[in-house]
Specification:
By secondary structure, the chain is mainly beta. It has 2 helices and 12 strands, in the order H-E-E-H-E-E-E-E-E-E-E-E-E-E. A 4-stranded antiparallel sheet has the order 1-4-5-6, with no helix packed on it. The chain has a 4-stranded antiparallel sheet with strand order 7-10-11-12, with no helix packed on it. A two-stranded antiparallel sheet has the order 2-3. The termini are far apart.
Length: 184
């Protein structure tokens, strides 16, 4: 009988430690969704560098060379710290979400304003982070990976067109980055 009770206690302790480590994400009611407005003919600012977060020194995809042509189809999500949040198509046909620095967009007006929260989370499992909100698991859009114990911040959620994803901020190679993970 003592062995059975000891075994049950051991199982309970393991389950409690695992559930304490795994973190479920915030609910949609705690976050604001964001979306993009379409600009079929672009915004006419030329070719602009794109960073994964609205900060100098933030991670830049495509081996540090991510950029977008703004004279063609582009989607705008609004301004964040003066940086313009955009979604654009890459040369290989994938989509990418990132930020154009303020000096390239001084006179562009949009009513879109993302409202982001910073809800601290700890990864309970390995999570791949992508910068393509239209095709999760697109191998061309992998930004980085979170490992159990890594800290990240949930900013908002994206659920348009049937996608349920958190938009998060995390660190890649010592640089701040933003991307998408599935809601869980």
């Amino acid at each position: 009988m003592k062995k059975v009770i000891a075994s049950i206690l051991t199982v309970v302790m393991v389950l409690l430690s695992v559930s304490a480590f795994a973190v479920s994400g915030p609910s949609k009611s705690e976050l604001t969704p964001f979306k993009f407005e379409h600009h079929v003919y672009g915004i006419g600012l030329g070719n602009c560098p794109v960073y994964s977060a609205p900060y100098n020194g933030a991670y830049r995809a495509n081996n540090g060379k991510a950029s977008c042509a703004t004279d063609t189809y582009i989607d705008i999500g609004g301004y964040d710290n003066g940086w313009l949040l955009v979604r654009y198509q890459t040369n290989n046909g994938s989509w990418r979400v990132g930020y154009i620095p303020p000096k390239y967009v001084n006179n562009l007006y949009t009513q879109m304003v993302p409202h982001f929260r910073y809800i601290r989370q700890t990864a309970g499992e390995k999570i791949r982070v992508y910068d393509n909100n239209l095709a999760y698991n697109d191998g061309n859009s992998l930004l980085g990976t979170l490992y159990p114990g890594d800290t990240y911040y949930v900013l908002a959620y994206y659920d348009y067109y049937g996608y349920d994803q958190y938009y998060i901020e995390f660190t890649v190679n010592g640089q701040t980055a933003r991307g998408f993970i599935p809601m869980y």
